[in-house]
Write a structure and sequence with these properties.
single chain; alpha/beta; six-stranded parallel beta sheet; elongated; binds oxidized coenzyme A
Length: 415
C-alpha cells in the first residue's frame, strides 16, 4: 500500500528532540527523510543518556525511526557541494540549529531559493522575532517562557515543568503541520516558503486555556474552579491550579486503594454535571443529588474540596482499575494514573501500534512509541533508526556520484 507522503524528499538537518520528532512523523507518513549528520559525531543524542556502551542511545533511536543517515561536513567546500545537490533534489529542508547557524554555513533563504525555488525551509527556533530571538533553547526553557511552568504545580510550591515534552515534541508537531500545509500550498503556487515554529509559541498554544484564565481573572478577580477558591487569595497572574481541571468540569486526583505504597495508586475524577446524581449514588451520598447546597454546579464550586474529600473516601476503598470499572458503568469521566511500566505492558497499546517493539542491529529489541496519528490509507510501519552514515553511499549514488568520487570525497573529509 502507498503512503500519504510517498515521493516527498526531506533534507533532515535536525538534531536533539524537537526537529527529529517532526521529521520522524513525516517519515512515518511515507516521506523519504535523509538525515544529514557530521561524520564521526552525528546527532549528539546518539551518545546522550546511553544505557549500553557504544550503542546508539534510546534517546536517538526513539526519535529517528524510518530515516536514512548520511554524513556530510557542511563546512567543507566539497561537502557544501554535496549539500547543494541534495537541496536541488529535495522538497523540504528541516532544521533546528541555533539561530543563524544555517546562514553561517552559507545556506541563507536567498541561496536556497536560488538552488531550488520549490524548496520549503522549515525551522524550529526557541523564540520568534523579539528580545530572545538569538537564544539557544531547550525543552524546559520553552516550558518556562511559554507559560506552562508558571501555571503548573501547587500554589504553595515553586513553578514546575511537566514530563510531557511540550516544548520539543510539541513544537515538532506544530512544525510538521506547517510543512504539510506549505507542501499543499505549493501545489497551487509552485513556490516554496519558510515555515517557522518557535518553541515559546508552541508551548503557549498548548497553554491557551491559561491565557483564557488570565483574562477571566482580570475581569472578575476570582476563578471559582481553582483550588484557591473560596478561602485562598488570587493575585494578578493566573496561579498554579494543582490538579484542577482546565475545563468547565471540576476534577481532581484522588487516592485509591494501595496509595500508601504505590505512588501511582490514584485516579483522576471528574464531577461532570450531567452525572452528578450517579456520582452521589456511587459514593453513598444520595442526599447531595437534591440538597440545594450540592445539587447545582454553581452551588458545588465553593465546596469542591469537601466534595472531593468525600469521593476520595470511596475511591480509597477500590483499586484504580476497580474504580474505573464501576465509574465507567455510570458514564462518570475518570482516568487511572498509569505508570510508564503499566503503559509499556498494556496489550491494547501494542495492538494499535502505539507502543511498538523494534529490533536494532547493535541494541537488540527495545520499545518505542509508534505513530500516534493513524491514517486508514497510510498505515505506519516503524523501522529502526539508521546507524551513523549508514546510507551515505546509497544517497550519494542517487545524486549521481560514482564510487570513485564518493571515495575521494571521503578521503577529503567532505562526507
Ligand atoms: N557539518 C558541519 N557543521 C555542522 C554540521 C555538519 N553536518 N551540522 C551542524 N554543524 C554545525 C552548525 O553549523 C553549528 O556551527 P556554528 O555554531 O559554527 O554556526 C554547530 O554545528 C552547532 O549547531 P548548534 O549551535 O545548533 O548546536 P548546539 O549543540 O550548540 O545547540 C541547541 C543545540 C538545541 C541549543 C540549538 O541547536 C538550538 O537552540 N536550536 C533551536 C531550538 C531547538 O530546537 N531546541 C530544542 C532542542 S531539543 O531539546
Amino acid at each position: 500500500m502507498g503512503k500519504a507522503l510517498d515521493g516527498v524528499r526531506i533534507l533532515d538537518f535536525t538534531h536533539v528532540q524537537s526537529g527529529p520528532t517532526c521529521t520522524q512523523l513525516l517519515a512515518w507518513f511515507g516521506a523519504d527523510v535523509i538525515k544529514v549528520e557530521r561524520a564521526g559525531a552525528g546527532d549528539i543524542t546518539r551518545e546522550q543518556l546511553r544505557d549500553i556502551p557504544d550503542v546508539d542511545s534510546l534517546y536517538f533511536t526513539m526519535l529517528n525511526h524510518n530515516k536514512r543517515s548520511v554524513t556530510i561536513d557542511t563546512k567543507n567546500p566539497e561537502g557544501k557541494q554535496v549539500l547543494e545537490a541534495l537541496i536541488q533534489k529535495c522538497d523540504v529542508l528541516v532544521e533546528n540549529f541555533a539561530p543563524g547557524a544555517l546562514d553561517r554555513m552559507g545556506f541563507t533563504w536567498e541561496r536556497i531559493q536560488e538552488l531550488n525555488p520549490r524548496m520549503i525551509v522549515a525551522s524550529v527556533k526557541g523564540f520568534g522575532p523579539g528580545p530572545y530571538e538569538d537564544c539557544k533553547v531547550y525543552e524546559n526553557v520553552a516550558q518556562c517562557a511559554g507559560g506552562a511552568a508558571s501555571t503548573t504545580g501547587f500554589d504553595d510550591g515553586p513553578p514546575v515543568v511537566t514530563g510531557a515534552q511540550i516544548g520539543d515534541s510539541g513544537t515538532g508537531l506544530h512544525l510538521a503541520l506547517g510543512i504539510v500545509t506549505a507542501l499543499y500550498q505549493r501545489t497551487q503556487t509552485g513556490r516554496g516558503q519558510r515555515v517557522l515554529a518557535a518553541m515559546q509559541d508552541g508551548v503557549l498554544n498548548l497553554c491557551r486555556v491559561k491565557l483564557r484564565d488570565q483574562q477571566r481573572l482580570e475581569r472578575t478577580g476570582v476563578m471559582k474552579e481553582y483550588p484557591q477558591y473560596p478561602n485562598g487569595k488570587f493575585g494578578e497572574a493566573v496561579p498554579r491550579a494543582g490538579n484542577a481541571s482546565g475545563g468547565g468540569q471540576p476534577g481532581w486526583i484522588l487516592k485509591c486503594k494501595g496509595w500508601e505504597t504505590d505512588p501511582n495508586a490514584y485516579i483522576y475524577f471528574i464531577t461532570q454535571a450531567p452525572v452528578w446524581a450517579k456520582i452521589c449514588n456511587v459514593i453513598g451520598k444520595e442526599e447531595w443529588a437534591t440538597d440545594p447546597d450540592y445539587a447545582t454546579p454553581a452551588a458545588r464550586l465553593p465546596r469542591l474540596k469537601e466534595i472531593f474529600a468525600e469521593i476520595e473516601r470511596w475511591t480509597m476503598t477500590k483499586t484504580k482499575f476497580e474504580a474505573m470499572q464501576i465509574l465507567n458503568k455510570y458514564d462518570i469521566p475518570c482516568g487511572p494514573i498509569l505508570s510508564m511500566k503499566e503503559i509499556a505492558e498494556e496489550p491494547s497499546l501494542r495492538q494499535t501500534g502505539t507502543i511498538v517493539e523494534v529490533d536494532h542491529p547493535t541494541r537488540g529489541k527495545y520499545l518505542t512509541v509508534g505513530n500516534p496519528i493513524k491514517l486508514s490509507d497510510s498505515p505506519t510501519e516503524v523501522k529502526r533508526s539508521p546507524l551513523l552514515g549508514e546510507h551515505t553511499d546509497e544517497v550519494m549514488a542517487e545524486l549521481g556520484y560514482s564510487p570513485e568520487q564518493i571515495s575521494a570525497l571521503r578521503t577529503a573529509g567532505a562526507i
